[in-house]
Each structure stands twice: as structure tokens, then as C-alpha cells.
Write a structure and sequence with these properties.
The complex is a heterodimer of chains A (161) and B (434).
Chain A: E1 2-6, H1 16-26, E2 37-41, E3 46-50, H2 59-63, E4 69-71, E5 78-80, H3 90-94, E6 101-103, E7 108-110, H4 120-124, E8 130-134, H5 135-153
Antiparallel strand pairs in A: 1-8, 2-3, 4-5, 6-7
Chain B: E1 2-6, H1 10-22, E2 27-32, H2 44-48, H3 62-67, E3 70-74, E4 78-82, E5 87-90, E6 95-97, E7 100-103, E8 107-109, E9 122-123, H4 128-134, E10 143-147, H5 151-162, E11 166-170, H6 183-195, E12 199-201, E13 206-211, E14 217-221, E15 227-229, E16 231-234, E17 238-240, E18 256-257, E19 269-271, E20 276-277, H7 292-306, E21 319-324, E22 327-333, E23 342-346, E24 352-360, E25 363-371, H8 374-388, H9 395-399, H10 406-412, H11 416-423, H12 426-432
Parallel strand pairs in B: 1-2, 1-7, 2-3, 7-19, 9-16, 10-11, 10-16, 11-12, 18-20
Antiparallel strand pairs in B: 4-5, 5-6, 8-17, 13-14, 14-15, 21-22, 22-25, 23-24, 24-25
Helix pairs in contact in B: 1-7, 10-11
Chain lengths: 161, 434
């Protein structure tokens, strides 16, 4: 399975990924519809894009009382079937990252589906901060480095207690 | 090995999935008194309000059971469990052996002792049959009384309003949704019900009901005076279907007590879902949390342990969410403060009419949100803090979604997609997932 990985040091907060995602969702550039969100931390001079992680143990998928959320066997993406979604919002309450969004017009939950295997956020990233890579390769190699870097730039170590 | 699961809803189904992730060999049988593949009780009000089709309430097809190689005995009630002989006694006279057993028998509507409550005009909103019986009664202009004001009651009322019925809600206590909202939030929702034309009578005792020959129900209440309605939906809570293991019940208490492993007092017999009196996330006394998410979590642990995984459940954390009367209503954990708690309350966040967070020594223990769906997502982000008893460092940043909790990131965060497979290491995941 391939996944979207983020290198916060490369992100320049151009928000192209948000625009690209919004365009894919709605055909316009209203960023509120985007499933990827670039958080900007001015004091730390850091920006971090956050998007669905398609968790191996996905709370949204497990809790859905309408069996509307499933994993695509091809891409591994955790996806909402809008024809089954009743709009109960349990998935919003189940996601610890705030990565499930609610479409108030259609009254269904929406989330990242990896664009069927060719994520627009990655395609539109101008800085190379977003990459779509094989999970196994990406993880172990860079995980600790990224964690350490994030903790440093966000001064989070001292908040640990 | 023969594994038998009694039940066919949230706990039973997630147990089956979880078991088969670990054991493809053992023979598995599901037994359920209701016929056919599983439907979702949560969805019944959505069916009644025409948000979902009849087909839409079903969450499994028969071939889903076949795919998981689970035999099904649907439409047959289990009369008795014989732990010594490792046998179930079925209502049709057959006996079914088991090596390991899961009781996921759920709960049933609890009816208060009100005279006439068993009459033909009185309905529950609990099973698919109930919903099918109510559906033709939902005629525009018909008058329905909803007895009780919990989640099921108010969702029934909301469906009736959307179908053009005249609705009166009668609640014995002084506020609506007493188990889901505090008094302040209940007042806001109460006003919203009134704005939708619902007649709401809190603090009102129902003295008696009398169904006449035409099927109409005459209701006598303390204070509000007698009135007549076309149908009554009685939704005054639930009680566990715990009769199959009487030797395990505590005197005078309902709900089968289970250990953190979801095992009952009988070796190799597990229980999960509404039928259980189980561990809670706060670490207090065991409680019945008859909620869908709790049933899913408990089912996953029980299913894994049926396969010998040896998992421990980190305890249930009550969580509720729904949309009704134009508001997303969500709550989490212990949302009514006690002495020594700190409370953050806001009525002017964008899109959130009422937000309340309760803290104990800096650690969030519960919350309520009323308003737009974003409030439910906010409570979702709060949930790991409540569950893991972690202080919420920067509240303004959290409310704006700018907080970045490296512990979350470390677990699955930034490289997270990448880390997610690792986060599936079961114990860690069970402890942190909800």
C-alpha cells in the first residue's frame, strides 16, 4: 500500500494541496472542502500538512453503524460510501485527528480517498513536502527523524509532562 | 474448536471480524433470534424519516457470513446456556455445542410500571419489526406521543416531525436527554424542539394509558391533563438481555459482569455489548454502557480473546452523537462537573452554539457540543485526551485545530499513514484507539 507522507521541513504553506483537494471534491477552490489541512505555526516558523492516515485500525471504519466505510483493497484507502452513509456522524466522533468532514448539503461524511491511487495533493505540491510512497519503505527509515524534528521545531518536548 | 456467538449486531459482528483476523480454522456459528442478515438499530430512525431505504438499514448480506465462514442459525432463540455440558439449548429443541462462547445478546426496551403500557397502541422503536409497524402509522397530521426523551425517543420524535406528524414528548425528569446533555444544553435543544412545533412536557409523570377500540390511546398525565393520540412510542431506556447466564449476575443488578478480557465468570464464556456490565475508561465501578461504539470495541476485544489473543479492554467511554431538529448533538465522557472540576464553556464559537469541556486537574474528562457537525469532530479530537487522561496543553490552539500533539504524531501522526500499520499492535491500539 502506498501512503501520503509529509516532510514538514519542506512545506512552504502554499496551500496548493488544499486547493487541489477542494477542486477534486467540489470543482471549485473553496478550501473548506479540502481533506488535507496545512497548519501554520508562525512563532515556530513551521507548517505541517495533515491528512487522513488510513489507519490500519481505523476508528471511523470500525464504528460506522451503517457499514458505509470500508477499505479499498487496491489502494488501501479508507473510504466513505455516500450511498450507504446515513449522516449519523459517529465517524467524526471516532477520528482522533479530525480528518472526517461532514458535507452539510448532502448530509454525508466525507474524507480522503487517496483520489483512487493518484492523490491530487501530492501532484500539486510545489515543494516536494508531500510524497506518495510505499508504506514499508517510508516508515521506519524516517519516522524517528521526523518525530525528533517536529518536536524540536514545535518546542513540544517540554510540554511532555 | 467450535466458537459460538449469540447475537448478530455491533458486538457480535465486530467479534466475528476480529476473531477471523486471527483464526481462520475454527468453526464459528452465529445464533440470533431475529431472522436474516444483520441490520443496524442505529439506522431505524433514519429509515422512519425516509433518509434511508429499507435496504439501507441492512449492514450485512448473507454472503458476508459465508465469506467469513460463519455458519448462521438465524430466527431461533437460545433458551439456555449449559456451561457444564458446553451446550446451548435452542427454542426449537436442538442443542448446540461450543468450546468457546460469546454472549452478545444486546438489550431490550425497559418499560416503566405505567398502567396500560402493554396495550396495542403502544410501540417501541427498537427492532426492525418495530420500525415496520410504526411506518404506516406515520401519516401526515397523525398525533403521536413519545414517552421518554433519550436518544431513541427524540430520534423517533424527529422522524415523526419530518413526516408531518404532530408530536408530544413527555419526560418524567426536569430536562430532556438527561443521559446525554447537561441542563444548559438540554434547554437549548428543548427550545429547538419547540421551534419545530413539538409539544415538550418535562417534569411530567404519565399516570396511565388506555387504548380504545379504534386503536387510539388516551393518556393521563400528572399536570398536563388527559389527551388522546393515534400512537405512543415508548422509549424509556433499555435493559440487558442477561437471562442466559443467571449464575453470573450480581444480586439485584442487571448486566453480565465481565473482566477486562470480556470473559464472564464462566471459563471460556465471554460477553460483549449492551448485555455487559464492563470496565470503564475512568476506572470506576463497572457499568452498562449500552452504546454502539462500546459494543464495537468490546466485540473486537472479545473476538480476539476467543482466538486466544489475551487482550485487555481499556474500558468504555460513553460517547453520543446525532443530528436532530437542525442541531448536531454530541457528548463525551463525564460532562456534568463535580466539586473541584474546571469548566470551559463557550456559546460564541463559529458554528458551535454550546461547547462545554469539563476538566479535572487540567485533564479533560468530558464534553458537550451543540450546533454544527464540526463540534462532533472537535469532540473526536478530544477523545484520546479523555481516554488517556492527558492534559490539554493549549486550549485556544486545540479549539482552532492548530494543536499538534507529538504523542499522537509519534503514534501515527505525521508519518502517520506510514505508522498506521505499526499502530495496529493490538494492545497499544486498544488502549489508545478510543
Amino acid at each position: 500500500m502506498r501512503i501520503v507522507v509529509v516532510d514538514p521541513d519542506s512545506c512552504v504553506a502554499c496551500r496548493n494541496c488544499e486547493y487541489a483537494c477542494a477542486y477534486r471534491q467540489n470543482g471549485d477552490f473553496a478550501r473548506s472542502a479540502s481533506h488535507i489541512r496545512v497548519n501554520f505555526y508562525p512563532e515556530e516558523r513551521a507548517c505541517v500538512p495533515l491528512t487522513c492516515m488510513h489507519c490500519a485500525k481505523a476508528g471511523c471504519l470500525e464504528v460506522c453503524p451503517a457499514a458505509a466505510i470500508s477499505r479499498d483493497p487496491e489502494t488501501g484507502a479508507v473510504e466513505v460510501d455516500e450511498t450507504r452513509c446515513a449522516g449519523c456522524k459517529m465517524c467524526l466522533l471516532a477520528c482522533p485527528y479530525g480528518n472526517v468532514h461532514f458535507d452539510k448539503v448532502a448530509s454525508v461524511s466525507r474524507k480522503c480517498d487517496l483520489c483512487g491511487g493518484d492523490p491530487m495533493c501530492v501532484r500539486s505540491c510545489t515543494a516536494g513536502a508531500l510524497q506518495f510512497v510505499e508504506a514499508d519503505e517510508a516508515v521506519d527509515r524516517r519516522r524517528e527523524a521526523v518525530d525528533a524534528r517536529l518536536r524540536r521545531i514545535l518546542h513540544l518536548d517540554k510540554a511532555e509532562k | 474448536m467450535q466458537v459460538t456467538i449469540v447475537g448478530n449486531s455491533a458486538a457480535a459482528l465486530s467479534a466475528l471480524d476480529s476473531f477471523r483476523e486471527r483464526d481462520q480454522e475454527a468453526s464459528v456459528t452465529l445464533v440470533s433470534a431475529e431472522p436474516g442478515p444483520a441490520y443496524s438499530r442505529v439506522l431505524l430512525p433514519y429509515y422512519l424519516r425516509r433518509r434511508l431505504s429499507y435496504e439501507g438499514v441492512f449492514i450485512r448480506r448473507m454472503d458476508d457470513y459465508a465469506r467469513l465462514r460463519a455458519a448462521t442459525e438465524f430466527g431461533v432463540r437460545v433458551e439456555r446456556v449449559d456451561p457444564a455440558r458446553r451446550e446451548l439449548q435452542l427454542a426449537d429443541g436442538r442443542r448446540l455445542g461450543f468450546d468457546r462462547l460469546l454472549l452478545a445478546t444486546g438489550s431490550a426496551p425497559a418499560r416503566p410500571p405505567i398502567p396500560g403500557l402493554e396495550g396495542p397502541g403502544i410501540h417501541s422503536l427498537w427492532t426492525l419489526d418495530d420500525a415496520m409497524r410504526l411506518d404506516p402509522l406515520f401519516r401526515e397530521g397523525a398525533h403521536v406521543m413519545v414517552l421518554g426523551s433519550g436518544f431513541v425517543a427524540l430520534q423517533g420524535a424527529w422522524a415523526a416531525v419530518q413526516r408531518g406528524l404532530r408530536v408530544i414528548v413527555v419526560e418524567l425528569l426536569d430536562q430532556i436527554l438527561p443521559r446525554v446533555l447537561d441542563a444548559a444544553a438540554a434547554r437549548i435543544l428543548h427550545e429547538q424542539l419547540l421551534a419545530y412545533g413539538v409539544n415538550v412536557r418535562t417534569g411530567t409523570r404519565t399516570d396511565g394509558l388506555e387504548t380504545d377500540r379504534c386503536g387510539r390511546v388516551r393518556v393521563s398525565t400528572g399536570g398536563a391533563g388527559p389527551f388522546t393520540v393515534d400512537a405512543v412510542i415508548a422509549a424509556t431506556g433499555a435493559r440487558p438481555n442477561d437471562a442466559l447466564l443467571p449464575e453470573c449476575l450480581e444480586p439485584g443488578r442487571t448486566g453480565i459482569p465481565v473482566a477486562d478480557t470480556m470473559e464472564t465468570g464462566v471459563d471460556g464464556v465471554y460477553a460483549a455489548g449492551d448485555v455487559v456490565r464492563g470496565p470503564t475508561a475512568s476506572g470506576g465501578p463497572r457499568e452498562i454502557h449500552a452504546l454502539w461504539p462500546t459494543a464495537v470495541e468490546q466485540g473486537r476485544v472479545a473476538g480476539a480473546n476467543l482466538a486466544g489473543a489475551g487482550l485487555s479492554y481499556a474500558g468504555s467511554l460513553s460517547m453520543n452523537v446525532t443530528e436532530m431538529f437542525g442541531l448536531t448533538v454530541a457528548s463525551l465522557g463525564r460532562f456534568v462537573e463535580s466539586d473541584g472540576d474546571d469548566v470551559f464553556e463557550s456559546r460564541d464559537l463559529p458554528g458551535i452554539r454550546y461547547l462545554k469541556l469539563v476538566f479535572r486537574a487540567g485533564v479533560p474528562v468530558g464534553a458537550i457540543s451543540l450546533g454544527e457537525p464540526e463540534g462532533a469532530a472537535l469532540l473526536g479530537r478530544l477523545r484520546p485526551f479523555v481516554r488517556q487522561k492527558r492534559p490539554l496543553g493549549d486550549l485556544p490552539a486545540f479549539l482552532e485545530g492548530r494543536d499538534l500533539d507529538w504523542r499522537l504524531l509519534g503514534l501515527g501522526g505525521i508519518r502517520t499513514t506510514a505508522l498506521a500499520p505499526e499502530a495496529s499492535k493490538e494492545k497499544a491500539a486498544c488502549a489508545s484507539s478510543s
